[in-house]
């Protein structure tokens, strides 16, 4: 009897496939401080209307819930609540109030979009609200440098059992699949401006080659490779394919 219950429960879970019907037209949003606002398009891909709720949150807000987003940010998100018709679209506008954010470095925010499906009268169907999150990078005007060159300017230091990376730029950088030779040092890490991160590496990794992928402003992953010396890695090169 217990076995039958477990089999039935497993079948129920396997057939229960939850997918977002609302899509965002980007995996990240760059807010260029030279302009008063940035925008993101939300699209309802379903045959039914949906309600969306959107909010901004400080990245220190771990759970990202609207209730716990207590830190007051100098931004206005409009609209924060909207109804999308079937296959309809809605533009979310993020407006900066003009002061309150650092002027010497880029800042990271989180933008949440909660999809609330319409309840069907008399239906016993389970309605599930789906939440999506993307990173918003507020980039004040006049920072200088080229944000596209951030990954190239990272400083890498190799010790006997650790790999250290420092970001000396005023921009964030997100790295994927950091490798020493064939050994994976990190699957993913986000480096804030001026931040450093140390990764343990296997002793056997003693390879003198470094490779990683850096996410660009469009959400794509660019490949970088470097040969090592006695202290670390210099002359990181952008490649069109894997190292």
TrEMBL record:
It is found in: Periplasm. It holds the Pfam family PapD_C. Keywords: Chaperone, Periplasm, Signal. The keyword Chaperone applies. Residues 165-221 form the Pili assembly chaperone C-terminal domain. It comes from the Bacteria. One of its GO terms (biological process) is cell wall organization. GO terms for cellular component: outer membrane-bounded periplasmic space. InterPro entries: Ig-like_fold (IPR013783), PapD-like_sf (IPR008962), Periplasmic_pilus_chap (IPR050643), Pili_assmbl_chap_C_dom_sf (IPR036316), Pili_assmbl_chaperone_bac (IPR001829), Pili_assmbl_chaperone_C (IPR016148), Pili_assmbl_chaperone_N (IPR016147). SUPFAM superfamilies: PapD-like, Periplasmic chaperone C-domain. Residues 1-20 form the signal peptide. Residues 22-143 form the Pili assembly chaperone N-terminal domain. Transmembrane segments: none annotated. Its main location: periplasm. Gene3D superfamilies: Immunoglobulins (2.60.40.10). This is Molecular chaperone.
